[in-house]
Write a structure and sequence with these properties.
- By secondary structure, the chain is α/β, with parallel strands linked by helices.
- The chain has a single domain, classed as Rossmann fold (3-Layer(aba) Sandwich), CATH 3.40.50.1110.
- Helices cover 55% and strands 10% of the residues.
- It is built from 13 helices and five strands.
- Strands 2-1-3-4-5 form a five-stranded parallel β-sheet, sandwiched between helices.
- Helix 9 links the parallel strand 4 and strand 5.
- The protein is globular, with a radius of gyration of 20 Å.
- It holds the Pfam family Lipase_GDSL_2.
- This is SGNH hydrolase-type esterase domain-containing protein.
- InterPro entries: Ester_Hydrolysis_Enzymes, SGNH_hydro, SGNH_hydro_sf.
């Protein structure tokens, strides 16, 4: 009697481990679609747009707004230079290999959420961001757009969002100082979040894994998962829901359309 039970439990455990491994790979280990390592090694037939940043840009946990742009603008080749967990210091280290080497026509930068979460000093953040933009501009002829950082959690009055205000001021300042374009992502999201009661920041890796499992194993949309936790734009207090991703797509689309007409 014991042997069938042991076999059954072993099979259940193996299936659970396999499912967990699948979720971990799809969420944290899988490379972005058309990453710099693939795209930048070859001559591009179309003008390239490099979207650089961290996990919100990589798009494996939360909405893939770079993929949405790729579908909407077939005349461009979109390179996803997002990397999970990156700070501005990390992006600065790979700016030559992942942005400049791609010879882009346009570059979007959405970077800094992890600087805020890791308490990177504001002066260091500002200096890193300025160095990234300066290197892109000196090494390419690309137009550059800096996006302000989304809220952390959906309660705009929470302490971490008061801290975030200084970082977003730095984004705006660097854009002005370097002649880059500024895309008001935080402002657009804040317009939505000002209405109704909102959940405060409460990100954790167990929550992120649970959210990812619901999406990849149960096939729930990012919006459905967020709503079940009382959230609207941020599926796990950090990463974008489908609606949140649509705001980024709309801003970037308007910018790219303007470039094409210029």
């Amino acid at each position: 009697m014991k042997r069938p039970i042991i076999i059954t439990l072993s099979l259940v455990l193996a299936a659970a481990l396999c499912a967990a491994g699948t979720v971990a790979y799809l969420t944290f280990l899988r490379p972005a679609d058309n990453p710099p390592a693939d795209a930048c090694a070859a001559e591009g037939a179309r003008p390239r747009v490099v979207a650089a940043g961290a996990s919100m840009t990589q798009g494996s946990l939360g909405a893939d707004w770079v993929g949405s742009l790729r579908a909407a603008f077939p005349a461009y080749e979109f390179v996803n230079a997002g990397s999970n967990g990156n700070t501005t210091a990390d992006l600065l280290e790979r700016v030559d290999s992942d942005i400049v080497a791609c010879r882009p026509a346009a570059v979007t930068l959405l970077i800094g959420t992890n600087d805020v979460r890791n308490s990177v000093p504001l002066d260091d953040y500002r200096a890193n961001l300025r160095a990234i933009v300066d290197r892109v501009k000196s090494g390419t002829g690309a137009r550059v757009a800096l996006m302000s950082l989304p809220p952390l959690g959906e309660n705009l009055d929470a302490p971490i969002n008061r801290t975030l205000t200084g970082y977003n001021a730095a984004v705006k300042d660097v854009a002005a100082q370097t002649g880059s374009d500024y895309l008001p992502l935080h402002e657009r999201m804040a317009d939505v979040l000002r209405h109704g009661a909102r959940t405060s920041y409460g990100f954790s890796f167990p929550l992120a894994f649970t959210v990812a499992a619901q999406h990849y194993l149960l096939r729930r949309t990012w919006d459905e998962i967020a709503r079940s936790g009382g959230r609207e734009l941020l599926v796990d207090h950090v990463h974008l829901t489908d609606r949140g991703g649509a705001i980024v797509t709309e801003l970037a689309s308007g910018w790219l359309t303007g470039l094409a007409k210029a």
